[in-house]
Write a structure and sequence with these properties.
Helix content: 25-40%
Number of strands: 25
Strand content: 5-15%
Oligomer: single chain
CATH architecture of one domain: 3-Layer(aba) Sandwich
Radius of gyration: 26 Å
CATH topology of one domain: Rossmann fold
Structural class: alpha/beta
Distance between the termini: 72 Å
Number of helices: 24
Shape: globular
Length: 702
């Protein structure tokens, strides 16, 4: 594997002479105005083009422009024919294809598989501007439009489908998106290093078949490289006693022979499980780990869970090895993840000449996603929380990449000076997790060798530096800038980290909360929390005490808005009942409910599909996980979260009787639901998110 080369160290491509485009072109006329006869790279995206660093097409497009390339954008093309994909002509180097900032299936469908009512990344929220599985459709149309042009797929949709994966919408295991999209290469994770290196190497005349050593890339191969040592995944983490059919590892002719194994008796039933001895002394850069094949994980859910477990053990850029997975007669090859950007590189990426506006073609239309983030600033990347239901880890990684204070201040000043209608309020100063700015491992050597899936679960790692003083210093500097009236923190907060720094909570509560602060305990019960890799509710209680204390000292009436997930794997009806009782006791009436949606590659999705727990060693007899699959049970779990909604009372009464908790049905304060039912099933009161507790007196009988 080549050494990491700084993103901005390449010699600029000759087309730099055309200068910086006011906005990346979306039409031939715009290309003509710039003096271009062609584009070097064309980015196809499922989102409307907004020239803002929070939008992937703009960030990658401006980065490639800074390297000297001419970059065009085809946004939300009509995919029903190839004609729209010819709008900018034939690109000289490649098509870059992305579904946009969101997975197209998550964007279009709810957790109940019902169509959503709007698309926040489309002008005026209009529906129908992107197809299902956008990456696959766009890639096929791009290849149809101009045969022979390399097609590179990336973004979160491609990233989460880089190996065989469970697909919630079809309820089956699908093969790697590389095969369905017929793409030449997939770039996963943060794409800056990979896409810049790829563009320069293709510009120098290398063919796609020669570009095989870029970190953060995946591609198809027909034969295994002869210079690599192949290590079977069972030699890393033995999946346990296999079924009676032949050992699938031994059945693969191209797998390396197992090392000698030793028998170890586990569990009370004295069942025998094989644990392989881990090979030692192998060169990591020359070793490739073979995952169970696509055909195997379709047939065997234990092997699917095993593949998920091994995959996640190989995600630290410091120690990850290449992965390979057979699909029929070919193999999906994944190079190790990309190395994180340095602070200097991240600063330059975020300070490229963005207009911070939607493309002029959308004049007069509203873009909901842009409206939400136009006055926000991203201060960092990555998340080491490792929540099993979240895709940030699989996409951005666990290592925190932070911008410098100076760079953030310059962006805030740019918003102040250039954004039309700026009122002096910065809507968010955050990232994937608001308070992980500059938090990192105390020792780079430990960080490089660590394979923990979370730095904060089951407890905060003793090697994690949790000092919030750099973030406090940043807050104070930004709100002191001339013309800045308020700076809000709207990104999710890791409260178990925050309680390590009461000074940070005081700073946050006193200056950066606008009455309400969103926070995500996700649940109150240990069962589901252990499957989510989330802290116990005690950490939330500790944070709330400090939040209330400092709010009172600041003379402010402020509230926490806790978010919870229903129907997460490993959750019982009793868990949801206990959560509902906690909500009622604490006076919360959630207005919106977040139901678990299994996204490809997430550990919780593997639990949902396999009913096994990849967080622990696997066997045929290992822990069973309740997946909450049935529509009736999923509705019940959502109903517990909205216990105050009369429409949910009938299903809750039925469940409480079945669970032997009919004592919670009645008209008193200690009851969860009343005995009576409004004639229409609806109440006349306005449901509140927080505030006064529910009382039967607030609902009028009809």
């Amino acid at each position: 594997m080549q050494l990491t080369k700084p993103v901005f160290s390449y010699r600029q491509y000759w087309a730099k002479r055309f200068g910086v485009a006011p906005v990346l072109p979306m039409s031939r006329q715009e290309m003509d105005d710039l003096g271009w006869d062609s584009c070097d790279i064309i980015i196809i995206t499922g989102d409307a083009y907004v020239d803002h660093p929070s939008f992937g097409m703009a960030l990658i497009g401006r980065l490639l422009e800074a390297q000297g390339f001419r970059v065009g954008i085809i946004a939300q093309p009509d995919w029903r024919s190839a004609e729209a994909f010819r709008a900018l002509g034939r690109p000289n180097l490649f098509f870059g294809v992305t579904a946009g900032n969101m997975d197209s299936m998550v964007n279009r469908y709810t957790s109940d598989r019902k169509p959503r009512s709007n698309d926040a990344y489309t002008p005026d929220g209009a529906l129908g501007k992107r197809p299902d599985r956008s990456v696959t459709v766009y890639a096929q149309r791009a290849r149809e439009a101009y045969k022979g042009v390399p097609v590179i797929i990336g973004g979160i949709e491609a990233s989460l489908r880089r190996i065989a994966h469970y697909d919630y919408w079809s309820d089956k295991v699908r093969r790697s998106i590389l095969l369905d999209a017929k793409a030449d290469m997939l770039i996963f994770g943060n794409a800056e290093r990979a896409v810049v290196e790829l563009a320069h190497r293709l510009a120098k005349g290398e063919s796609m078949s020669e570009v095989r050593d870029i970190r953060g890339t995946a591609f198809m191969i027909s034969q295994m490289p002869p210079d690599r040592v192949e290590l079977d995944s069972s030699q890393i983490d033995e999946p346990g006693a296999l079924m009676d059919h032949p050992d699938p590892y031994a059945a693969q002719p191209d797998c390396s022979q197992h090392q000698a194994t030793e028998k170890k008796t586990v569990n009370s039933d004295q069942s025998v499980i094989q644990f392989a001895k881990r090979p030692k002394g192998l060169d990591r850069d020359q070793t490739v780990v073979r995952l169970p094949s696509y055909e195997q994980v379709i047939e065997d859910k234990v092997l699917y869970a095993h593949a998920s477990r091994v995959f996640h053990l190989e995600t630290n850029p410091g120690n990850a090895r290449a992965l390979v997975q057979r699909h029929g007669q070919r193999h999906v090859w994944l190079n190790p993840p990309p190395m994180p950007l340095t602070t200097e590189e991240l600063d330059r990426v975020y300070e490229l000449p963005y207009t911070r506006q939607p493309h002029p073609i959308y004049a007069g239309k509203k873009n909901p996603a842009w409206e939400m983030i136009r006055c926000s600033v991203n201060i960092m990347r990555g998340c080491f929380g490792g929540c099993t239901f979240c895709s940030i880890t699989e996409h951005e990684g666990r290592i925190i990449q932070s911008r410098s204070e100076d760079s953030i201040a310059r962006e805030v000043e740019s918003i102040r000076d250039t954004v039309p209608g700026f009122t002096g309020h910065i809507s968010d100063l955050g990232g994937p997790t608001a308070n992980m700015y500059r938090l990192q491992c105390k020792d780079p050597a430990i960080e490089k060798s660590c394979r923990r899936l979370s730095c904060v679960y089951p407890g905060i790692c003793q090697n994690l530096q949790t000092d919030h003083s750099p973030l406090i210093k940043l807050y104070r500097r930004i709100r002191a800038l001339p013309g800045i009236k308020r700076v809000f923190v709207a990104s999710g907060l890791r409260y178990d980290l925050a309680v390590r720094s009461p000074e940070y909570i005081q700073e946050l509560v006193t200056h950066h909360v606008g009455g309400y602060l969103k926070i995500a305990p996700e649940h109150t019960e240990e069962g589901p929390l252990s499957k989510m890799m989330k802290p116990g509710i005690g950490a939330y209680d500790q944070f709330k005490r400090l939040f209330d204390k400092y709010s009172q000292e600041a003379g402010k009436e402020q509230y926490l808005i806790p978010y919870f997930i229903s129907a997460h794997p490993g959750t019982t009806d009793e868990d949801m009942l206990n959560l509902a009782l906690w909500l009622k006791k604490n006076g919360f009436r959630p207005d919106q409910v977040q139901a678990f949606l299994p996204t490809p590659l997430a550990i919780a999705s593997a639990m949902y599909h396999t009913q096994r727990n990849p967080l622990k060693k696997l066997s045929r007899d290992s822990e069973q996980v309740n997946p909450i699959r049935g529509a009736k049970q999923r509705r019940l779990h959502k109903a517990f979260l909205r216990y105050h909604d009369p429409q949910n009372w009938p299903i809750l009464r039925e469940a409480l009787k079945r669970m032997g908790r009919a004592d919670l049905i009645g008209n008193g304060k200690r009851h969860l639901v009343p005995r009576w039912q409004p004639a229409s099933g609806k109440s006349r009161y306005q449901t509140a998110t927080v505030g006064k507790r529910w009382s039967a007196k607030s609902v009028q009988k009809r």
